[in-house]
Amino acid sequence: MSERIIYFDHAATTWVKPEVLEAMLPYFTEKYGNPSTVYSVGRESKKGIEEARDKVAFALGAQSREIFFTGSGTEADNWAIKGVAYSNRNKGRHIITSNIEHHAVLNTCKYLEQEGFEVTYLPVDKDGLLDPEQVREAIRPDTILVTIMYANNEIGTIQPIAEIGKITREKGVLFHTDAVQAVGNIKINVNDLNVDLLSLSAHKFYGPKGVGALYIRRGTKISSFMQGGAQERGRRASTENVPGIIGLGRAIELAYENLESKNQKVLELRERLIDEVLTKIPYVRLNGHREKRLPGNANFSFEFIEGESLLLMLDMKGIAASSGSACTSGSLDPSHVLLAIGLPHEIAHGSLRLTLGEDNTQEDIDYLMEILPDIVTRLREMSPLYESVKAKEKCECERGNKNV
To answer: Is 327 assigned a catalytic role?
Structure first.
């Protein structure tokens, strides 16, 4: 194992920034009070929560009373979808989503299908883009919710959320977006996007794990997530994760400081990475839209190799990467996202997701490109299919030379 660790998996999670940890620490020790109590140490915790709520609301262009803290982005997705479904079932039981959503959305929708709801799964094009007109055509009189992710966690494609939101607003249908990958990476304003609900998670933008938030537009009909105490204005019972919430607030505040300059640096690294991989390695394709994608996302499919073997060999060289969603890393099935954009199983199995963050450097790209082509070559040499392709190419080349 190489001692050098280069991290190219920021879409899976990020490290906690020192400023975030510093903000959290007092709430483990001096400010440990339960925020539901009336004495001073409890009031300090309550004050910290409300300040964090203000920071999240400011980052999203929302009102503080529209922000509700959760235990994760997955919980926020579950609450948004199930909460709207259960509280609006008398109006209808039809939900619209896409076939490349995170499993937090897809599996929640599948669960609701078992509960008697009907779900339409819209297809995407070869770049992972959804046509807003598909949403318009899919909306029925009994449609109660549209849930479309802001940016895909695997291929980075950014959806036309504002256009979709305009359609749902015209049709009087509630609109939720899973923005877990987008928040902290691109500018977001819930009013410009025409969304009614939006999910986010702190650990995607240098905050702690185990804490997220759900934006619920004022007036949205949605049931409570858990029954119990009066926390989160009676909408989400359970004693609050005070240090985590404080960390989320500080992390989102830092994320949107100098966002454009940070994104420009990451974008330059990503473009260089994409160009070099496509130029120096044959039989490879970039997955996702070339321009309409998250700044740090580069997802490739390498023919004639298995993604898992590629990841293990990169890890031996001190490089942390992914073959898809971190939430499905234990699965041997190919990515549902890559299959949805038209890749055959054998190519979908050879995927590599490299997601960059503000800590990556040009030297990181240099090192990756020193070893990646050799690793790909070594793995392909073990593939009988690749050997047959090389033999065919050699035969065609010799035939061409004879014709000359």
So the answer is: yes
